[in-house]
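Re: your question from the hallway

Yes, I did run it. Sequences:
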Amino acid sequence: VADDFAFELMWIADPAVTSPVIATFSKIEGFREFSERLESLRETEAGFAELRVDEQYRRAGGVAGIQVAGEHGLTIVLGEPYPQILYWFAMPFTTPVPWEAVVWYDGEEGRPFFKDHPVGAGPFQVTHFDKRSRIVLSRNPNWYGALHPEWRAPGAVYPAEGEADDEAHGRLDPRYVGQTLPFLDRIEYRIEKEQIPTFNKFLQGYYDAAGVIHESFDKVIHEGGLSPDMEALGMKLEKAVDPDIYYIGFNMNDPVVGAPAGARGRALRQAMSLAIDVVEYNRVFSNGRGVPAQSPIPPGIFGYEPDYENPYRQTDLVRARALLAEAGYPDGIDPATGKPLRLSFDLGDTSTSGRLRFQFLVDSWGRLGLDVEIAATNYNKFRQKVEEGAYQIFMWGWIADYPDPENFLFLLIGTMAQSNSGGPNTANYDSPEFNERFLAMKDLPNGSERLAIIREIKDILARDRPWIELFHRESYALYHAWMQNVKPAGLSLPAAKYVDLDPALRARLRREWNQPIRWPAWALLAVATVIVVPGVVTFLRERQ
Amino acid sequence: VLAYIVRRTVYGFGVVLGVLLLLFALFFLYADPTEMARRAVGEKAPPEVLEQWIVNHGYDKPSLWNAEDPTDTLLWEHYRRMLTFDFGRSDADDSPIIDRIREGMVPSLAVTAPIFTFGVLIGVAASLFVAYFRETYIDRMGVVLCVLGMSVSILLYIIGGQFVIGKLLRWFPISGFDPSPAVAARFLALPVLVGLVEGIGGSVRFYRTVFIEETSRDYVRTARAKGCGDGRIMAHHVLRNAMIPILTRVLVTIPFLFTGSLLLESFFGVPGLGSMMVDAIHGNDFATLRAMVYIGALLFILAQIVTDVAYTLVDPRVRLE
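Structure:
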């Protein structure tokens, strides 16, 4: 097993694989060097590239920081402190992979690529994989939980305790507690392109679960809960706040809105932040779904405090106007030109729905007298503008890779600034005050010391306003009455093994809900006959 | 005839080369490989991963001219691949394009072939019927219905059909596809019905015009004077003489049966070539798009040649020189 873990890590390092997480795992000692050695050997040594891939890795000397000791011993040495790497080991990237499978599934001679034919060790196995229409998982008879139920391994038995609301949601039913997982024999995922037919099929009982689409929102949701119609169908609604943040950012290198403008720029950013009513925004554009954000850290991540109120993330036009005057733009007028201050809102989305959303924000700033222009281009053009530093205000989002505040706050660290490192700090925010606290917080365990620093960080960000935090998305999921133990899983992916369903109830309701109504067909036929026959008869009689 | 076919084929080949050049200009000179790479490997991927992707997919070559090795250019590679039907792998997910085309053709044909066959049969029969009853209220009502049918967008038929027939009346499944022949018909019924309703207006109007023009000809009067029955005149004389315009219309649509229907397949969840095109457009999968456009053009040119030859079969007066 240890060998398979080591192989998987070396596979991430392999330049031919183009793994998106190569930079993250480069914190392992010798990771980059291995990658470079492998590449140069493939280019220079004759016949090397034709060797079996595990043999290539062995000859390239492996990664210095990954040491295998026997069947179950694996030591990983990091070149720098990075406690968050543990989270990366909970992601699919580091699933142990047998080299034999990688070598065999190479896309040649009719064999699929390994990525289209994954070989792993979970409670389910992929038995049908057509990523365009249908993916089927079946119970894996060789899973350790199935082979050794007597071990009572924690991941192989239904748990007896859970989170605060699990009991109330019926997720700790004594019929399930202590039972061997998984409960389902087969899971089918259907890939559909259009939302409306998909949702209608869910309503007919042909799908077990669904999200709530915009078009049917008012029909399905009533005052934050299920509508009476849906309740009558026995449906369950599960809501969850996603671990993400959507925000407006300022390019801090910009002479007007950024750091070079000093206190004036800061007051301008604060004023613009106070002008945006995100509750209204969510009401208009997402049926009221979404939690207004007060800091970059979303609910469920350490450091999020529901009571925290960012003094600049309330809607207060009076204060905003005062700040704008303080910034030297009374009523939004730029004294240099005598006209409203002109700013550019740079976006990588030219869709109609996007334009409506951006216009909402521009109108909010317009109420302060500012003249913000939407500069929407396609996404790649926008990326290019970002790379060249030719942007003023932008809008972006970030979804957590792992549940740690570091994964959000690093987006504002000076060393990650887009302008000097090409990193994800698109705001180019570089505050020594913030940087110092971020570095102190980064590697601390969750606790009062860490929380105290995070609170300081929040205050710094509230004041400096490199971002206007907008919202954390909220997702609604619907389940039919026959589904059991369903729970919005957030970042944790493997929740399917806990789910159960009642196939008899499903078959009965499906039948009840889908009795065809045939009389309109007969009626239509009758009407057509009544209209056409007299005409035919008259015509023929006249011809006679 | 053989000489004509050879000549047309040579012309056709010239057109194919031209189409390929246009495709090259569209897909290689305009497309930005970095954007394609980002779509394929993900938003968070660092620049070196994007570069690696571009190298792996061969988009790093010079586009038109390479002094060291003239064959090592995008243009050369493009022509070589297309002309030898070596379409390579998809830009979006690395799957071999030719396999996907092969897999997608059956579901596409399962939808388009019945629409085509029933469309022609019903269209010809219905237009013979209204042409026979011309100038009566049946004919006028037929015209009104046809124009009405033609003026409504297919999107409305799809969504309306799914809502009324699938959801309210529950005659057929709303969408979906099953390759096993026993169940396939249930799933195909609604998309085929929608396709028929959408197409029937136009074809009835067209065939009706053709038939009415034929019925006013001298040979029809002669036939009638000889004592020929109405049924025999319509089915035997008029239909046969109207074959040329019918053939032109019918044969030219055949290539598009293979490439599928973008909207029908997307909305009804049919995993055919039409929905594959939609995926490719959304996913910046230019390799797949290029192959599909090329195949479409090729089939179209082929259909043109077949149509010309078919004229000689239905009308002995036509000679191909």
